[in-house]
Amino acid sequence: MRNPQLNRHGELTHLITTEGLSRQILTHILDTANTFVPLAQRDVKKVPLLRGKSVFNLFFENSTRTRTTFEIAAARLSADVFNLNINVSSASKGETLLDTIANLAAMQADIFVVRHEASGAPFLIARHVAPHIHVVNAGDGRHAHPTQALLDMYTIRHFKKDFTNLRVAIVGDILHSRVARSNIHALTTLGVPEVRAIAPLTLLPSGIEQMGVRVFSDIKEGLKDVDVIIMLRLQNERMRGALLPSAHEYFKHYGLTQEKLALAKSDAIVMHPGPMNRGVEIDSAVADGPHAVILDQVNFGIAVRMAVMSIVAGASA
Ligand code: CP
Questions:
Q1: Dihedrals phi, psi of 152, to nearest 5 degrees
Q2: What are the respective helix, strand and coil percentages of the chain, to the nearest 5?
Q3: φ and ψ at residue 138, rounded to 5 degrees
Q4: Comparing C-alpha atoms, which of 45, 48, 49 is closest to residue 37?
Q5: What distance, in Å, lies between the first and last C-alpha atoms of the chain?
Q6: Which pairs with CB-CB distance under 8 Å and at least 24 residues apart come from 205-213?
Q7: Which of 58, 86, 253, 283 is the most buried (most CB within 10 A)?
């Protein structure tokens, strides 16, 4: 079966998930992003690639980084950007998601950027829009956050150059994390030989080993000699029932401190998709320390989102 993100020519027309995307497509996105990074240093930070196109940002769930960087990215591509305020939209009067989309499509939308608490919502929209409209997933439930994974891959390639000799550790609430899932797919496709998942057993999805990762419940063992550490937020809003004794206890065992970081390689980088819970999954001394590249991730997110929108918009209808 054809990947539903690709059109009949094999071009990326929607971005819903990193799962099933080829190394060639992922690398093309990273290389395209690379051409946009220098734009930030120019007086005029714009290119005309999406001039005349309309990008609709539909965030049904809260966001700081993703929403803002998508808006900046669309503006830098010279698109017209419309941010739907979901709280005052007719969704609150019972309008269905697909009716909302049909109405916005009637306003000549070209790209929908969608964040939704329901896994599968961006895919549902992609299945129903006309072929000239593109859907980019900005995070859906526990399922996927592909542009976060791509900006993470960009950051890793920027600092480490080559994926094929790395040990990457993903630490924390993997069970509820769309970022972890998207990163594991991207890392394994790009040739990272060792991806480690470090978490208490209650925060690991069953069968995660089948995704090609090594599982560790002891963080000290898991961090030994890694090149990259990706910390995850405890997603309390997605937890049903108590999966942990307390935040204090979690920090003691799984929080990244300078002492635990010292077990990784001396040039290891520390990443976090944000928002961070300082003192829960990461100590401030690490979050603000010399190994942290957390704000670089945010900055690279603009170029990566420019790349994704320009690539999908360039796909044939
Ligand atoms: N990383 C991330 O998705 O952050 P926001 O929720 O602020 O967009």
A1: -65, -40
A2: 45, 15, 40
A3: -105, 20
A4: 45
A5: 19
A6: 205/174, 205/175, 208/174, 211/181, 211/184, 211/185, 212/184, 212/188, 213/170, 213/184
A7: 58
d(CA 86, CA 206): 34
**Is CATH 3.30.360.10 the classification given to domain 147-294?**
no
Q: Whose CA is nearest to atom 1 of ligand 1?
A: 273
Which residues are identified as catalytic?
65-66, 93, 115, 145
Residue 245: cis peptide before it, omega within 30 degrees of 0: no
Centre of ligand 1 from the C-alpha of residue 130, in Å: 28
Domain 23-145+298-314 and domain 147-294 have a common topology: yes
Q: Which two tokens stand for residue 129?
A: 């829009």
274-312 residue pLDDT tens = 999 999 999 999 999 999 999 999 999 999 999 999 999
Residue among 57, 59, 60, 64 whose CB has most ligand 1 atoms within 8 A, to mutate: 64
**The two structure tokens encoding residue 111:** 């790209």
pLDDT in tens, 109-137: 999 999 999 999 999 999 999 999 999 99
131, 133, 134, 135 alpha-carbon torsion, rounded to 10°:
-110
The tokens describing 213, both together, are: 């990762």
Could you tell me the residue ranges of all domains in the chain? 23-145+298-314, 147-294
Q: Please, are residues 43 and 31 in contact by the beta-carbon 8 Å criterion?
A: no
Q: Which amino acid is at 307?
A: A
